[in-house]
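note to self: dont lose this again. the chain is below, predicted strucutre after it. 473 aa total, dont forget to put it in the shared folder this time
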Amino acid sequence: MPELAFDTLQAALAGQPLFEAKTWQLSPSAWALTPEQVTDLETIGLACLEFHQALETLYLRSASGKNLLRNKSLTTPWVADYLDRGKPDYLVAHARDAKNRGTLPAVLRPDLLLTDTGFVMTELDSVPGGIGLTAFLNRLYGGIEGSGTSDVLGAGDAMVKNFYASLAALRADLRNPLIALVVSDEAGTYRPEMEWLAHQLQLQGKRVFCLSPDDVFPLGSTLCFDVEGNPEKIDVIYRFFELFDLENVRTARFFFEAWAAGEVAITPPMRPFQEEKLAFGLFHHHLLTDFWSEVLSARTHRELKRLIPLTWVLDTAPLPPGAVLEGPRVGGRALSEWKQLAGASQKERDLIIKISGYHETAWGARSVVLGSDCSREEWQAGIEIAITDAPTNLHILQEYRKPRRLQHPLYASEEPHPIQDASGRLRLCPYYFLIDGKPRLSGALATFCPPDKKIIHGMQDAALLPCRMVAPN
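---
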């Protein structure tokens, strides 16, 4: 693959800003993945879909008091309590509505770290940013423009095409449904990439528009927006805002009313249990071992056990005398309450604390505390927040698996921007779009961070790159 010149990259990104007031490091080449890694990503996509399907089964059976297992008795009302905690009643009722059964996010994006033993999945995002950015970078680095000849993952403009296909499938009864990409003020950083996506699809004759929630209004039982003084009915909404943000969305109740009337399809579904990080803690919970074994295929069960780090829910419910928590050990001893984590040595603090969901700090690494990379005071403060917030906002504790150190060429920031072989660590975000009930891998965004950055996200000193598949040496 030919290298992209610094001036070419800079001009392309300056001419089409994809994030509001965001910059990152530039590289002459896309991130290289082996065929085996791409095959692994395909398998991971199927595992993510099965996990979502199994989580819905677990949640609904828990909420209704139904038995989880075929040949043994197991009811788990505490699961629904965990997943519903802190949510308003109307949202819980909506999540459980029979008309919502089987509805899953149209876009799945796991956060993967590349470690010495392979990929590790730290989160599974149902409302991911980066779709437009990745599609734009695929074009820029692959020079594809629909040719389909590039080795970039997502060649042939797959990100744009499959994103649309996954949304249009929600109204398969319509030839050209009107789709609104609704971006809240809270998520406004991502509005430019959604506007870019909408424009690309409009060029293909698709009726796709990027809107603010305030652009939407009810007309009878339908949802509409104004086009040159005339109301246009919306058929599909791509919800680009977190559910905690609903209180700030003044038109939110019209979304629910139009959905209940069958006038609009909404994805991701407004089902908060699908957006809780504590689902990974449920996967590792010893009381649910038989459930996951029964409901998942053997291949997916093995894959998820390999991918998902040990995760525990920081539930502060008191234990009877003599009981201990299922979790890490401190000073060689089991814990009887989570506040004892404060005494962990730095070596024992290879652990991450983060809020589970439904909160303004639940995205963008805002609530993440990495014990081995912070002071004892910061670690203790993170534990105290988790304990204090537990009655309304649960946190999780997750085993930290260190990403491996890798090399990739980057342009130096100073003139004349020579290419340097940089060292760093990688987060990989593959994008899967649900089409015909199957996850279709359509591109992947690589975030390459300096090696001293333990928590990897789209920071200013990281490089954001598309991925390409290369033949083995």
